[in-house]
Write a structure and sequence with these properties.
single chain; mainly alpha; 74% helix; 0% strand
Length: 61
């Protein structure tokens, strides 16, 4: 193994993916709570995740 302290991902990447995941989970939960089926919640969460990652990638420098 390499003993150097190399990062797997940068802090910026981790933050963007975390915010995207939180956005996706929130959208999915809200969709199901509003009466949607689990499949619709999953799809809306995935779409929200993708949009949030693009959005946060653009605004976080």
């Amino acid at each position: 193994m390499n003993s150097s302290n190399q990062k797997l991902v940068s802090l910026r990447t981790a933050l963007i993916l975390l915010l995207g995941a939180l956005t996706g989970v929130g959208a999915g939960v809200l969709t199901v709570a509003a009466g949607g089926v689990w499949a619709a919640g999953f799809l809306s969460g995935g779409a929200a995740f993708a949009g949030a990652v693009i959005f946060f990638h653009t605004i976080i420098d």
